[in-house]
Design brief:
Length: about 150
Amino acid sequence: MCTIQKNIIINVPPADVWAVLGEAGQWSKLNPNVSDYTYTPCPDGGYEGEWNYTLGKLKLHSKIRTNIYEPMRRLVVESCGQMKSKWIWWIESDGEWTHLALTVEYSAKWSGVGAVLHELVLEYLHGEALNIYLGNIKRKAEKIHAH
């Protein structure tokens, strides 16, 4: 199991961050690794669906579902398929700024060569894509706040 943790401070209230994060349709627009994303909202909040997740030249298809949906506080989404992952977002705020923390735990069946490739290349690519993703969330939330 591999774990990547990312944090960002966004100078807007948590409601503006949640307006971006809690909207399932934003995933493929904000995360550069997500494509062919389809989802269905769940009655109790959250969503389930499918996506392709790209790491370098590796394209992985997974089914996803929301396990925890607590507006303006926490969101947990799990995927299963070619790569198993758990995406955990935490929101903390003083009311004027928001700290968004993202932990991604993931595993795949890597061969011996694949494990080396993962450590040397894929983990870096995944981390960089998550930096872009959080930056996109920040820009979108700040745009919402400005209007």
